[in-house]
User: Fold these one by one.
Assistant:
Number 1:
Amino acid sequence: MEYKYISDVKPKDLWYIAMNRIYRSFIGIINIVFMLAMIMLTIRFWNTTGGILRFFMILGCLIFPVIQPLAIYGRSVKQLENLPKNLMLTFNGSGVRVECDGKCEDIGWSRITNAIKQKNMIVVMSDGRHGYMLTNRTLGGQKEEFYEFLCEKLRR
């Protein structure tokens, strides 16, 4: 069995991973608590403050639900500029073949550490910090079949 995909990563895919990671961690809980505290403080002191303080209270309320996601999206766009374009990934019985700009690298299954299935993608981890993202757009209707293939290879 062989699967061939061209990695088609968009900024929203990187944004989704970053936001998912933030809000599934302790930092996400702190963000939510801070946001709720700012909303309550804004409601409590709205009538007793002037224009500039109201501006800062509204700004404080918008940090985590608006400003942080926009900043992370901007970082995702910048991060995508450094990633190689037209990355061809071939998954077969011996491992993963990565082709990009005329260069080729073979990665054996023993070097693949994990496969993470998320709602909109599968991430094939080549080590603890690096991996290859295959979105649902790329996988099409083969997502489940491909994930089963990965799990079978990684169990061995």
Number 2:
Amino acid sequence: MSDEEDDANQEDMAADWAAAMSEQEDIDSVLAEQGADAGGSDASPAQFDELTAPPHVAAEGAPDLDVILDIPVNISMEVGNTEISIRNLLQLNQGSVIELDRLAGEPLDVLVNGTLIAHGEVVVVNEKFGIRMTDVISPSERIKKLR
């Protein structure tokens, strides 16, 4: 992926976040007006005008991603899968072989919280298994899959 495409994707994401924040501000103002009309709010409208952007939004209106960078996620690698009946599942024992839907040598799927983010191959690092990413899905494609 070129730097121009990355810049365009970043700009698209920033525009999406700005639109979402604008919608939230509209909702907040409507709720504030309803609260003032109903007499349920002690705050004057001037106080709402003085509010600043939430701390997770940068000055330009783009989201501050530092807020989410320390959130843990589950990452897993999928060799393949198959569907079997409960009868066959109960008959499995040591030495049983389950045929998967992948060919030998095909790349593994790398999943984060169940969402495909990349393909990779198994490697050994310091006598432990690892995975080398061979094809990483672009951030914009990942976001489309979440919707």
Number 3:
Amino acid sequence: MKNRKMEKSIHTKLSRDDDYTGYLHLDRLLSAQVPLSDPAHHDEILFIIQHQVAELWMKLLIHEIGQAISYMRADEMAPAVKNLARVRHVQNQLYNQWGVLDTLTPSEYAEFRHVFGKASGFQSAQYRILEFMLGNKSRTMLKVYEHQPEWHAKLTHALASPSLYEEFLMHLERQGLPVPRRAIDRDFSKMRDEDDEVVAVLKTIYENPKRYWTEYESCEALMDIANNFQFWRFHHLKTVERIIGHKRGSGGSSGVSFLRKAIDNEFFPELIRVRTEIGE
């Protein structure tokens, strides 16, 4: 193997304020993995990093969906769809992470599970914000965050704000499509039932893709995100089942059966229903 010489133009006179470590705050980031097991169990680091990395990806998802919403409000759908494309790729990263955690065996996990007490992924404020941004609203979930005023405020705001899908419906209405007012002029903190008139609007788009190409493309981008979220939920369920079987969750939930119920909770159900009605 040849010895590669360092190029003369590479910076070597650096300070902690302008180098890679400083820009990324790596000292802080890489010191945030603090096992509670004593002595530290080898696999607890895996468990901590898995969840910390997931939180970083979720932060980016919130950032990208928020930008897509801003573009939709301005009726700039092309850049909104670009943001949604990035969301899909980030979701793929989140999904593929489960393969790493799947290497944790039940006996290994049992040796340190007790150390984090009541802590559970169920309590992830960012995950809940994502659910709210995608339309799965639940005021009762706010109780979990009453001891964290900053997150409680962010969640309350996300609960009351239109979801990504509702912003899309408002865009459709501004384009002259007959979206009923009851679907977009309402209390957004509450879930609404499927609306026949909304489904009819979506059917018009799908049956006239050349005329409504931007809207058609946006519908498919939304469906990709909804499906990816379901794939993620399912792999989460199977990973939990593989590692702890049907034990109760650390946060007090019923565990696998609780996660299974979430899979029945579809985002954008009108976009699914319209597929049944197209061509009929």
